[in-house]
Structures are given as structure tokens and as C-alpha cells.
Amino acid sequence: MFRFKPLHEKGLTKLFVGGMHGDECEHTAPLLNMLAEKVRDEGEYCGEIVIIPCLIRRGAYVSVLRREYYERAEGRRLLSLVRELKPSFYFELHAYGIHALSRLTAEDRLEREGAPPLVEICECVLIGSVSPILRREFGKDDFCLTIELPKWRLDAINAYDRVVGCVLDILTAGLHACTREDILRFLRRRYPAQLSEAERLFKTFHDAYYDAY
Q: Are 123 and 162 a contacting pair, CB within 8 Å?
């Protein structure tokens, strides 16, 4: 775990987590280690930064959309971290195989799995809502984002740099953002069509399941 505390700012924490289940660690750890190096080298960011490249190095694949996940050691650790740190920004990195693409982006994913479909933002990188079970641990104005990395493109020499560049672009914007609107403004400017669709899907999800917010 990497933890970077700002010299002057207080009260804002950002949590970046990867390696949620299965073999995802081998794909998320290199990228989040790069992010940690970036923070260490540049030192320009907003708030306290906590980076966990691997929540679990290797384990069973249990979906984060299921309550069972949060009863396992890795899920309990995640809940403990969120409750202890109370992050205002939360980035959750996964890695998926090409066989899962149609399921993750299916229009009926909300009905089948309880979460809206993910949206391709760049280079087969998908973004979307975090698990509704975990989202309830955050406040209404907190920024939470799931990012799915395409395993087969990370394994391809000619695509690796583009995928990493895309994801680091988003995460770096998260480092510098001081408010939810800051990161949304960046994403809308950089990926207007994709963000429009992602926000539409989230609003449908929010209206259906989060009236309490």
C-alpha cells in the first residue's frame, strides 16, 4: 500500500484499488505502481492519496456485485479501508477477458446483475458504476468509478502503451481533481460522447435504486 499525505491540505482522501479478485492483480498492479511513482516524483496532487495495487494477489473470482464478496477476506478488507479512510474519490480497477466484453456492456446488465452496463471510454477500457453494495458506504457527492482493463490488449505489445496511457490519463486527472465536478469536467471534455452515455446510464441506475441519496 502507498500512502501520500499532502503537506498543507486536509480533509480530502482518494483511494485507488486494484486486484479485486481472481488474477486481476497481475494486470492492475503494474499500472497502479506507475501511478504511485508519478505521485512520488511529481508531488502535485489534491488531498491524501492511498494506492493499493492489489487487494488480493490471487484468489477465487467472486463478483463484487454479490454480497458474498464482502463476506470474504478481500471484501472485508475493502469495507474496512473505505470505512476507515472515508474517501471522497474512489477508483476501482479490474481486468477482464475478451469473452466478458458483451456481458459487461449488455443493455440488460442492470436487470441481470444489478449494475448498469459499462461504457467503452478508450482502447477497450470500460468505465461505470461501482457495486451498489459498496456505493452505499459513500456519500451522495463522493466520486466513485469502476475501470475495467482489457487483459488481451495489455498482453499485446502494440496496444499496451495506448491502454496504459488511457487509464493513467484518467487516474492522473483524479489525482489533481479537488472536487467531483473537477474530474467530471475533465472527462466530459476529453471523452464527451462516452461520458454522456455513462452519465445517462448512471442516472437511470440512480433513479431506480438510490432515491435515498
A: yes
